[in-house]
Amino acid sequence: MNSAVSSDNLLTSHTPPLPDEPLFVVEARQSGISFHLKDFWIYRELLYFLIWRDVKIRYKQTLLGAAWAIIQPLLTMVIFTFIFGRVARIDSEGVPYPVFAYAALLPWTFFANAITTSGNSIVGSTHLITKVYFPRMIIPVSAVGAGLVDFAVALPMLAALMFYYHIPLTWNLLLFLPLVLLTTLLAIAVGLWLSAINVKYRDVKFAIPFLVQIWMYLSPVPYPSSVVPARWRTIYLLNPFVGIIDGYRAVLFARAIPWKEIGISLVLTLVLLFYAAYQFRKMEKSFADVI
Amino acid sequence: MKPIIKVENIGKQYRIGARQQAYSTLREALAGAVQAPLKRLQRNGSSDAVTIWALKNVSFEVRPGEVVGIIGRNGSGKSTLLKILSRITEPTTGRVELYGRIGSLLEVGTGFHPELTGRENIFLNGAVLGMRRNEIARKFDEIVAFAEIEKFLDTPVKHYSSGMYMRLAFAVAAHLEPEILLVDEVLAVGDAEFQTKCLGKMGAVAGEGRTVLFVSHNMTAVRRLCRRVIWLNDGEVVQAGETTQVIGDFLRRGAFSTLKKEWDDPSQAPGNDQVRLRSIAVTPAGGQIDGQFTVKTAIQLEAAIWNYLPGAVLNFSVVLSNIEGVAIFNTVSIERPFPAGLVRGSFLIPADFLNDDTYTIRLLIVKDTSVVLLDLADLLMLQVHDSERRINWYGKWVGAVRPSFDWELSTGD
Hints:
The structure holds 2 protein chains of 2 kinds.
Chain A (H helix, E strand, L loop, with lengths): L1 H11 L11 E4 L9 H6 L1 H18 L5 H21 L9 H23 L6 H4 L8 H27 L11 H25 L2 H15 L15 H4 L3 H13 L6 H26 L2 H4 L1
Chain B lengths: L4 E12 L9 H17 L7 E13 L4 E5 L6 H8 L7 E6 L3 E4 L12 H11 L4 H15 L14 H13 L5 E5 L7 H16 L3 E5 L3 H7 L2 E6 L2 E7 H10 L7 E3 L12 E10 L8 E2 L4 E9 L4 E11 L4 E6 L3 E3 L2 E9 L7 E11 L3 E15 L28
Parallel strand pairs in B: 3-7, 3-8, 5-6, 6-7, 12-19
Antiparallel strand pairs in B: 1-2, 1-4, 8-9, 10-11, 11-13, 13-17, 14-15, 14-16, 14-18, 18-19
């Protein structure tokens, strides 16, 4: 033991010269917006480790582990197929209802889980926030990242359904990844905002399940967006998830890409993201004192 | 030499009570919004929330390679200072310049997850503390060897004994390599052997030319590790300077303690129509010159009450608790009838009985051995210090009490 300590000594007993400028300055933050992107980059490995932790723990603690990522959207699809496909006979625009529903349920399940976990993530990380510094945004963002892993696990089921129902693959699929990115950004925006206000108002925890439920029915998840009357269409498109789901269905079922809808969704998402990040940064400085 | 840490006039204000609760619910916020203007009217415009300054005008500099101790009683602002330096919370006023990477060790095991294995937690905890993945990988074997958990590397840490858990947690933290290390009280954990090891490691870190800020209640450890000490009280720097000098003054001034309370006027004294407290005090028995209590000091406690119930059968009861609120003992006098007027009671806590710690005193006056007439908590606070040790070990002496029994030693069969 002693020899280990002394060799340690030899290896690192150099005092490097100090930089001219301070590495960090700590002071009361003035007004103005800075998103700390540099810090975020320095701590990118922590982001990776937190995602890895969330995924690992989820799969360790559950009996079925990774299977849940598939079961969740799949079971909902079965229920929807029965209620909306068979009983309510919703028009699924020429695509078999199960795959029609699954195409929307896959991103929706990701989104719903992501905003739920990231919305509760800051409050659930009290022990980290009061004890060590890192850019706080990493916490809600990593919660969304962990959801993305589930999304990837559930993806082959979509491929299987498309194969089973003989749905042809087209070049439209190139837009699939950009759509996933857009969904992720929207989830981050909502998650950031919810997680920050959750610190101050613990009501958020109870409100999130309702938010998720209402939001799903306001999005064309169990039904096609074409059932919404034309005069309501403009208001309907203010829900950024409408453009996203229309996009997914167009990409998967070889339809004309709804550029306008996706564009609106993209703009709304970016606005939300900036607003959420701004709010988060504003509230962040009191996290350690309030939480 | 240029300082590596430059603290200029920092202050930290916390709001307590009135307007900002720790956290609120939406309903309270809405109700508050409605009531606030009314309250403002009632309170004549001065609706200022109750605020306290946890730190006020704190300035100091630390040069590279220095090991500086920060001492002060609980609530003096030590932890707030470390939290500001490690960027966990922002100061309300002032500015800190840091000319090096900061690693903070405000708690060991930050970010440990019970479900993950030792191996997994080393990586996770390392990342939380700001280490790079390849840096952790490079030091992995060293960390495992230091923690002595080779056999349990792939066991979830929830199955670890608390000793193993602490060893692993400290091992990861101890292998951080920032230029500035902030350490808060981590040495108060683990068994004696491990504490020695931790102190050794801290000494080694200091010897490597790294800068360390060390917050502790353990004066023995501070004495040993630090050449310079900053003493905080009520958020302000009382004294900063050479270790022996500052610690000496700190202990002499009994910065922790309330050793005596006395009331001359019964109408002001705590109590009721039946009994009132006249005075209560602790003093070192045998007249310790510098007024300090050490583990080698016998302590005299004396209380006096006004009794307004002629002939009542009364007895004294005293509870001594440590600063965490754990009762160390409750001692009860015999009961007997007293005439109206002053009643005194006293007893002696022998030397070699209390451990070094901060203690509070609660007094109860009981009638007929069953009816509590008076119950006053936190009347006094006294600090029992460690004495100079014969032995070559500086860790915190464990145990609620620290008796010195007569050992018989022998050899052979």
